[in-house]
Amino acid sequence: xxxRLSAHIRNFPSINWEASIDRPNTYMETLVKETLTLxxxxxxxxxxxxxxxxxxxxFENYKEKLMEVYSTVELKSEDAKKKMLKDAELFHEKLAxxxxxxxxxxxxxxxxxxxxxxxxx
Length: 121
Description:
Elements lengths: L1 H9 L15 H20 L2 H25 L5 H18 L8 H10 L8
Helix pairs in contact: 1-3, 2-4, 3-5, 4-5
């Protein structure tokens, strides 16, 4: 999953944060779908304790990498912030209840909420 996240992050420079805010960006929709699929497959074949041991580091990596890349994005408008917030909300909404997630979704969501728009203080 680390490789999948890295592939999504490589596309960050091409994301138009000023685009329509009616839906999350494709990278986040895909990341959430891939994570749900992994969790579903693992939960069918592994005991809960093993599932948590696998998914915990996955979510820790998500938290580290997403917060790192989000911190580098310069938001130029309120719409850009809403677009990023839409991504963070999808992550939190769909993945927060998975075993091993911990507070990853909440941490990412709060980080995005706290981001400043360029030119404001």
